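Model it.
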Amino acid sequence: IEQWRGIYRAMGAKPKYRPSIQLLYEIHNERSSIKVPVSLVELYCLYSLARGIPMAGYRPEQLTGTLTLTVPGKGWPFTPLGQPSAQPELTKSGEVAYVDEKRTICRYWNYRDCDQTKLVTGVTDALFVFDFVNAASAVCRPVEVMSTFAGFFDQHVRIEIAILDGTDESAVEL
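Modeled.
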């Protein structure tokens, strides 16, 4: 968690913006459980907590074009999760965010997801994102972490694993 706090400080994030893994730990410590109405979200939250790795889940059909982790610059629109009719927030200068071609999907790397791509009950297609601070670390083992998570699903589910390590300009085209 300390590495993520350092990343947030480097982005210039105010203390109210906390890494998702920190929020999960705080909720779990407060309630002794993680209860989420959508079972798929609960599954990835519990897995994220057990592994200590921030995760997110999205409905790919709600994304426009390429999902990219970038510094989009000031002013990209963002509709907070659970607030579909709220006035959109705007990204700030220096903020790292997941964006598609239309909007911000997740602010401050993994702080908060948008409402439009949230997983809902009955979803049949999902994209899971794992945020590794240091994917080259022997402790991290990204392929093992992602493969183990994929093992929770039956053999009829199509699983694709891709690691974007920042060494090239590649992105995942949806």
